[in-house]
Amino acid sequence: MPAGTLQIRAISGHSGTVPGRGVQREEEVCKYIDVTTCIGCKACEVACVEWNDHPFRETTFDNTYQTMPSTEWNYYNLIRFAEDERDGNLMWLMRKDQCMHCEDPGCLRACPADGAIIKYENGIVDFQQDNCIGCGYCISGCPFDIPKFNEKTKKVYKCTLCSDRVGQGLEPACIKACPTGCLHFGTKSDMVQIASSRAKQLREQSGFADAGVYDPASIKGTHVIYVLHDIKRPERYGLPANPVIPPSYTYWKWLAKPTGLLMAGLGLLAVFFHRVTVGPKLEQPEEPPPIEHQPDTLEAERKEQP
Amino acid sequence: MVGRPSLRALSAVTARVARLLLPFVEIPHDLANDLGINGGDRVKVTSARASYIARAMVTGRIKPMLIDGKKTYQIGIPIHWGYRGIAEDEGKTALNPVNLLSPTVVDPNAYTPEFKGFLVKLEKA
After folding, report:
1. Containing domain of residue A42, as a range?
2. Which of A100, A106, A175, B53 meets the CB 3.0–4.6 Å disulfide criterion with A222?
């Protein structure tokens, strides 16, 4: 994958067109995970930790092969195991869980800090920890519960889709490490095409009548897509069926926040105009001393006079 | 400390082992119900040669067998572990590796163990 950001648009003193201009047909990248061929070896987990130079993190035993209950600030991707028994058939489902790099990211919408979350032209959503203020809004804004907070540094972390590798034309570390080839990386249209044909193959030849591609339109698509055995019930894999950004963030950013600011601005204007037209606050006369308690009902008067 | 290797020093395979959990024994649902074992409990597996203590992983992936009308179960210890690690040192699991349970019969040239299926007793530890 060529690096998209430093493509030349114009060259001084050069006759003719810029060589190679417009050759790259598409910027958007995508990671395609074929859940049906995953063997749960966790090479991707190891590769991610190695590439990002994270320290050893103790594993948790919860009666499954799952390394820990959820992704962590120093553990960006996790294979989720689920034993699903339906109609007497047992299926051992394994799904690689990490940031979905949504086209309409909830974390980005929720974040109030300038430059803390960046979405690149190629679709990767990256956290810039230097600008992060540690408010944690991205954590609740994410429909997939991915970003995780680090108590020590007070910053939030998640999968970066190896933006540093992709920027140099390499594939992400997890994809490089996968031994079965169930992880693929390429342009979004290519990956959607491969995923669709795989889902079709599963439906027609492998007896999975409900196989399909998980690329939810409710957040305008994601840059990480899955092929699932059962697209009708993504909850079996721990995926939300219709992920949405919590509406409170939209209301806050586009309604409550601007309205509040507007009210504050109008209030200041009102104060100014009142001062100019009606005048400044005048000296108030001294308050008379407080009157002794006066009985104001007949009953009270009768009580006071024995 | 042997049990806590740095990630950078390991090859991908052994690092993947570090991603695995405490030593565990895979037990079918039915057997676990019969013995009153819940997932995560300490169990003791005893063979004719030695005993081994690990956590129970109750799973539906192993189904019981009906042999001569009698319900027979198979339990699995798919990872037989190796050097002592943090869990062993903290007393969470046995100090013996699983290899002590299997018959000590090996190929005289290659030292490949003869057999990895054998009769054991399973109980709560």
Report:
1. 29-246
2. A100
